[in-house]
Every structure is written in structure tokens, then in C-alpha cells.
Amino acid sequence: MTAAAVIAALRFAREHGSATAALDETGLSLPDTTRFEGIESDCLRLLGQSTLDDPLRPGIAFGFLAGCAARRSCDRRVPDPTAFVIDQDLVIQAAKGDSILRLPWFANELFVGRQVPDIPEIPTTIRSLAVQKYRTALTGERTDFAFTSYGHAYSVDAVPMRDDEGSVDAVLVVAVPRQTRPDDQPQLTARELEVLTLASQGMNYAEIATQLFLTHATVKTHLAHIYAKLHVRDKAAAVAVALRSGLIE
Questions:
Q1: Is the pTM above the cut of 0.70?
Q2: 3 state SS of 188
């Protein structure tokens, strides 16, 4: 999990401008680096400088963030990464970290040993994006993307892994949970919100159609569009996501 923790810490630090700022966000504090005997003089010799203004704090902050991400016990605001190793055939060889298990379409050990394009449990739009990014990473180019599903948002890094001869033979995928932003919210039309609101009240297709003076087929079409936008498969899941996201009350 060490590499995944470092990648998670890098993303967390980048989102906050620096490792020090990211650490401040967690509410944790670092010890004064002057308390470490000999560190300042060693660093001075390494850098060829005569003065040193707490230069180790950013490095220590980053190391602390990575350690917290690896242990997932320092603070709940430190990222909890989930990591996958995917081979050249897009088969998931290993997975570790449980943050992504909060997604209803994910189950522990469900994906290991399966090809990503052939995993129907992953919503189609997310699966297509992931496959595209993983294939790009297999060419040697690091990629990243973000997705939101069931009200949970993730930032994903796809990092090429090279063998002893320097050839890319796998991809390390690190998914880090992030805070949802207003622009993460799916954009439902006024009519779709009406349909979803009535569905949340327990109405079936026929009842919704009668209430809104629509045909049964039109209601089904609206719901199909809603499912696609919310990355879900059925009415119950759509209602759950909409309630969690504040789309309906």
C-alpha cells in the first residue's frame, strides 16, 4: 500500500496547494524540526546553504500525510485510498483499501481476476472512462480522472508500472475519496425532478404518468435518463442518490 499512500498524499497536497496546507486542513500539527538533533546541519551540507528556515517541514508534512493515508488511522480527513493493480489485459490482479467499498456496485474481492471492460457491475459511463484511462497508462503515460457515483466522489490516478527491463507491464490505480462540489451534481431537468420526486413517494410508472399527464412510455424514458445521469440501475437507487445529494427532499 506504500505507493498508493504516496500517490494519495500527492493528490491531497496538490489539491490544497502544499503538503503543509493539506496537513493543516486535517487539524494535526507537526513537531518543531529544530528538535531533531543534527538534521539541520546535515540538510545545510546537502543543500550548500548557510541558513535554513525550517526547510524540512514540507517534507515531513508530506511523509506524515503518506503515513496517515497508509494507516488510515491518524485522522478521518486524511485520504483513504483504494488501490488496484491491473495487467496488460486489463485484468485486476490485486486490490487493497476499503474506502471505495461504500459504493453499492462494489463488493470486496468482486473485481479481482476479472477484466475491467467485462465487469457489468460498474456503471457504463464510469467503466468506459476507466478503460480509456487504463489503456493510456499501459502505453506509459500517467493519467487521472474523477467520477461521482451514488453521491460519492473519487479522484483516480492511473500510474504505469515498469518491469526490470523498463517495459510497462501493469498499471497501479489509486482511487481517493474527495469532497463533492456543486459542479459534481448531476443536472436533471425540471421534468426529471418531478418524476423522481413522485417516485420517491412510492408511485409506480402508471401513477406517475397519471399525475403528470404523461404516457407510461414517456415516464420510462425519463427514468432511463435519470438512471444514466445518476449512474444507477433502478428507481430505488435513483431515489437514494437524489435524496443524499439534495436533488429532491
A1: no
A2: coil
